[in-house]
Write a structure and sequence with these properties.
mainly alpha, 6 helices, elongated
Length: 146
């Protein structure tokens, strides 16, 4: 049950961060974008709890349920877990740069610039992290080969 709760934290935080990112992209003023990007910080904490708990309790379940060491879907999920975590960290640093620029622009006239719009749109790494997270979810539900 704790593994599933961790999965809900991971997926819920990821979806929340994605929605807030889209809203920040569509904002008309840097102050609005900055606010929405700041709201992602609590979602990142939820994602972190989900990442840790899915790994810890997932490994425990692997042992408790007696899955073999060569179970493909578990190994694929672990690889995707590493990829998702790494890409999410890179995307978080990019988001912070966008937030800092948005806050500077908000204090200097609150006018949107092409540079900020480009930073807000250029978040492919975060979207790839989200896709990897959803792929993990699919593997956990489908369990190919089990």
């Amino acid at each position: 049950m704790l593994h599933i709760t961790g999965g809900f934290f991971l997926v819920g935080g990821t979806v929340t961060a994605g929605v807030l990112t889209i809203l920040a992209q569509r904002a008309e003023r840097p102050s609005e974008s900055a606010l929405l990007l700041r709201l992602i910080k609590p979602a990142v904490i939820v994602i972190g709890v989900g990442i840790a708990s899915t790994l810890i309790f997932g490994l425990w379940l692997w042992h408790e349920l007696g899955f073999g060491i060569g179970t493909f879907w578990i190994w694929a999920s672990l690889v995707l877990w590493v990829v998702s975590s790494a890409l999410g960290g890179i995307g978080d640093k990019h988001r912070e740069r966008a937030r800092e620029l948005a806050e500077r622009l908000a204090g200097a006239g609150d006018t949107m610039t092409d540079e900020l719009r480009a930073l807000l749109r250029d978040n492919a790494v975060s979207w790839l992290a989200g896709a990897a997270t959803l792929a993990i979810l699919v593997l956990m539900i489908w369990r190919p080969g089990s």
